[in-house]
Design brief:
FAD-binding domain-containing protein; FAD; 23% strand; 7-stranded mixed β-sheet; D-Amino Acid Oxidase, Chain A, domain 2; alpha+beta; oxidoreductase activity, acting on paired donors, with incorporation or reduction of molecular oxygen, NAD(P)H as one donor, and incorporation of one atom of oxygen; single chain; FAD binding; 8-stranded mixed β-sheet; FAD/NAD-bd_sf; 15 helices; 610 residues
């Protein structure tokens, strides 16, 4: 959401369009959507609404709706959306979005990448050749770009096979909205098991995920009629308005591409093409958005002649470790989600082992029909653990399982929704940055539990958020975030300093050196709240003739609030250089004693790889 704030009001549009937070803050565990609730977990804490660590809150928004908004933003920027039926053989002018096209062939040379794209037009597949300097493959988990480039995946394959059923039911949405609102519903009963994702209760839009065990089961076993029947079993009562939109099988993997950049920095992978992991914790879309945010300014720096092509390799250096970490965390989240059925006597690992034995082990010699019958019989016996006779407080075993389930929820050991430390606190340890000389280049392993974000100014970290007030417009008391001080539409660095003589000298040096490196730098002079008188005049004198600077004052929430420099764990003699993607490229914790010109030349040379 912080990234989307840079896209001309996109974050605000998402917040207006998403369901109210009270409709998706909970995960509900039940025997049916209208039956007994086994437990629920509220994933929103008071601080999540206070915007202390970020200027924007988390959002729950479907990907296909986000794509519509992004396409509209691109059209506003004069990009032309081209559908296959409207294309002719004229060469592209640039700025086209080719809908309905598939990359089928890649030929990378030392000078360019030639792509053959196929599209269906008037009932026939037609190919078109496209030449480009850089090809970014963002074509999903089954990425053709990745396969054609010969890039392998590393990690765990086939964690789980599922069938996804996208359906609409306003009646169900209205019932849940009134009776038990939530984002995810984990449903366990003797006839069916599934996870229902409530994309929008007000619109009645849902996606149901159900276990799938081929080859004993096939997609034909999940016809629209069968899916409606299963939905009703999970709901627990009749619904007359179920409209099944789509039914798709898919496989859950936990894999990361062995490399993100190949073919002499000309082919790049991002998003699900570069990493695919369980949809547990929202890391799939968030990690992909972060990929694009990291990559965008580097491609722009290359295109504008600011940096050589080697700058693109820092994308892999920085993003691949984050993808590996998020993959491990997503697997932990998936295991946490499986802890609930395991507690109820339905250990998914047992089901998978039985299926593997039937498919690849001794059961593989049996006729397919008998394999199917055995599998169905075992699953029926397993689901019997969920009968009302067994799963109740009066039954000794059932009471024990329910008590264990309550402890699981209370101790935060079930699937979690929010991960502030990972969403905001991820840090690049090397790449287009300069680590502190005393930096410890290690990363804590994932815990699978919610951890709060702690602001940091370590190089590679996201710039901390603090509300500040613009002094150039003192008539306005409106506050903005430190994250808003960077321009979102050009390759520009931001240098934070305090209003001290040595710091002004450093700022002048940075502005001079940046001019030599053909890159833009804006200086931000951050004034304490009680010393703003005469600020603008002083900065104007100290930085003349340079005009690319801004004076701001801390806008503390209270007298107990930390100052900017204390929050960054630095002295006010220090300085922080921020990259165009709001990550810290370099800092001087307590100022510089050396020649600032030489220091800044070394800094920009290291960051831009020139």
């Amino acid at each position: 959401m912080e990234v989307f704030r840079k896209l001309d009001g996109l974050a605000e549009e998402i917040q207006r369009s998403q369901p109210p937070v009270d409709l998706w803050r909970k995960f509900v565990y039940c025997t049916s959507l209208t039956g007994p609730v086994l437990g629920s977990v509220d994933h929103m804490q008071p601080q999540d609404f206070e915007k202390v660590v970020s200027p924007v809150s988390v959002a729950h928004f479907s990907q296909y709706k986000l794509i519509r908004l992004l396409l509209k933003k691109l059209e506003d920027l004069n990009f032309h959306i081209c559908k296959p039926e409207g294309l002719n053989d004229e060469p592209f002018r640039g700025g086209e979005l080719l809908m309905g096209h598939e990359c089928v062939k890649i030929n990378a040379t030392s000078q360019s990448v030639n792509v053959t794209a196929s599209h269906l037009k008037e009932g026939k597949y037609t190919e078109r050749n496209i030449s480009c300097n850089i090809l970014v493959g963002t074509d999903g988990a089954g990425s053709t770009t990745r396969k054609l480039a010969g890039i392998e995946l590393r990690g765990e394959k086939d964690l789980q096979k599922l069938v996804s059923v996208h359906f609409l039911s306003r009646d169900l949405g209205q019932y849940l909205l009134n009776e038990r609102p939530g984002m995810l519903f984990f449903i366990f009963n003797t006839e069916a098991i599934g996870v229902l994702v409530a994309h929008d209760l007000m619109q009645g839009e849902f996606v149901l995920q159900m276990p799938f065990y081929p080859p004993q089961q096939s997609l034909d076993d999940f016809s629209p009629k069968t899916c409606k029947h299963l939905i009703l079993k999970l709901v627990g009562q009749e619904l007359s308005d179920i409209d099944v939109i789509d039914i798709k099988p898919w496989v859950m993997h936990a894999e990361v591409a062995e490399k993100f950049v190949s073919c002499d920095n000309r082919i790049i992978l991002a998003g699900d093409a570069a990493h695919r992991f369980p949809p547990a914790g929202g890391f799939g879309m968030n990690t992909g958005i972060q990929d694009a945010h990291n990559l965008a300014w580097k491609i722009a720096a290359l295109v504008k002649g600011i940096a050589p092509s080697s700058i693109l390799h820092t994308y892999e250096t920085e993003r691949r470790p984050i993808a590996i970490f998020n993959t491990a965390l997503s697997v932990q989240n998936f295991r946490a989600a499986m802890a609930v059925p395991a507690t109820l006597g339905l250990d998914p690992t047992v089901a998978n082992s039985v299926h593997q034995t039937i498919t690849d082990g001794v059961g593989s010699i049996l006729p397919s029909g008998l394999q199917r019958a055995i599998l169905d019989g075992i699953f029926t016996i397993g689901r019997a653990q969920l009968s009302e006779f067994l799963l109740n407080e009066k039954n000794l075993l059932g009471s024990s399982r329910l008590a264990k389930l309550r402890r699981l929820f209370e101790e935060g050991k079930s699937l979690q929704l929010q991960f502030p430390a990972e969403d905001l606190g991820f840090r690049y340890l090397e790449g287009a940055l300069i680590p502190d000389s005393d930096s410890v280049g290690t990363q804590e392993p994932p815990t699978g539990r919610r951890r709060d974000y702690i602001p940091s100014s370590d190089p590679g970290s996201r710039l901390p958020h603090m509300n500040v007030r613009m002094l150039s417009n003192s008539s306005s008391e409106a506050c903005i975030s430190t994250l808003d001080l960077l321009s979102g539409d050009k390759v520009e660095f931001l240098l934070f300093i305090a209003p001290l003589e040595k710091s002004y000298h450093l700022a002048v040096a940075a502005l001079k050196v940046a001019e030599e490196f053909k890159v833009s730098v804006k200086v931000c002079i951050l004034w304490p709240t009680d010393t703003v008188k005469g600020a603008e005049a002083r900065s104007k004198t100290a930085l003349a003739p340079w005009e690319n600077y801004i004076d701001v004052a801390e806008a503390k929430e209270s007298s107990n609030s930390s100052s900017w420099w204390s929050m960054c764990q630095m002295t006010e003699k220090g300085a922080i250089l921020v990259r165009p993607d709001e990550h810290i490229a370099w800092r001087a914790k307590s100022g510089l004693d050396d020649d600032p010109i030489l220091e800044m030349k070394s800094v920009f040379s290291a960051i831009l790889k020139v």
